[in-house]
Amino acid sequence: MSHARxxxxxxxxLHVAVxxxxxxxxxxxxxxxxxxxxxAGAAATRRTVxxxxxxxxxTLTLYAFSSDNWQRPDPEVAALMRLFRxxxxxxxxxxxxxxxxxSVIGRRDRLTVGLRxxxxxxxxxxxxxxxxxxxxxxxxxxxxxxxxxxxxxxQEPATPFERALGEACHDGGPVAPxxxxxxxxxxxxxxxxxxxxxxxxxxxxxxxxWPDFGETDLEAALAEFERRERRFGxxxxxxxxxxxxxxx
Length: 248
Ligand code: FPP
Fold this sequence. Notes:
Blueprint: E1 15-19, H1 23-29, H2 34-54, E2 59-66, H3 74-97, E3 100-105, H4 113-126, E4 132-140, H5 142-155, H6 161-168, E5 180-183, E6 202-205, H7 215-227
Parallel strand pairs: 1-2, 1-5, 2-4, 3-4, 5-6
Helix pairs in contact: 1-2, 2-3, 3-4, 5-6
The structure holds farnesyl diphosphate (FPP).
Farnesyl diphosphate binds at residues 20-25, 38, 41-42, 45, 62, 64, 69, 80, 83-84, 87, 136, 185, 210.
C-alpha cells in the first residue's frame, strides 16, 4: 500500500460508508456459484480499503453482513463467516502497517467464538492506529442498534445519544455522521444501514457490481460528492440574503 495522497480537500474528515452489493449477480454473470462472488467481493474490499487510505479518507464503514442476511442458505452464511475470519487474519498486519484502526460494528452474541476472538484480536492489535478508521459491519441492523441505544439512553439520559448508539453497536466511541454513502449493484435503498448516521449523507449509486468496484469508482463518487451543495436544512449560499446592513 503506498502512502496517502489526499487529493480531496478535507478527505481526512470524511466518513464514507459503502453498501457492497452485487457479489451474487457478478458470480452468476460469470456462470459461477454465489460464493465465488463473495471471494471476489473480499478482494474488492481489500482494494477499496487501500484506495481509501491512499485518498486520505478519515473513516470507511463497509456493510459486510446485515442481520437480515442470516436468512440466506446456511452454506452461504458459513462461507461468508469464513471469509470474514480470513479477512481479519490476513488484513490486521496490513492495517497496522498503514495506520488503519479496524473495528467491527454490529451484534456479537450470534457470531461464533472463533470469529468473536478474531474480531477482538484485530481490534486490539490496531487500536493505536490513527491514520484512518475502518469499520466493518457484521450482523448489523441500524434499527436494532437504535432500539438498543434507546434502552441504554433511558437508563442513563445524561449520556449523549450518539454515544449510546456507539455502545449499542460496539463502536469505540460516539457514532460519526456519514458524509457519503455509496451503494453498488444498481439498487437504490439503505437496507437498514446506518439510518441515524446517514441523516444528511449524500447518496451515490452505481450499477457496478461490488467485485468490479475500483479506485476510479471511489474517486468518481468523491468527485460527485465535492460538487454537491450540502445545506443541512439551511438555504443555499447563493440565495442567502447579503448586505444585512449591520443587522443580526
Ligand atoms: C451483497 O451482495 C453482499 C453481501 C451480503 C456480502 C458482502 C461480503 C463481501 C463484500 C465479501 C467479504 C467481505 C469482507 C469484509 C471480507 P449479494 O450477495 O446480495 O449480491 P446479489 O444482490 O447480486 O445477490
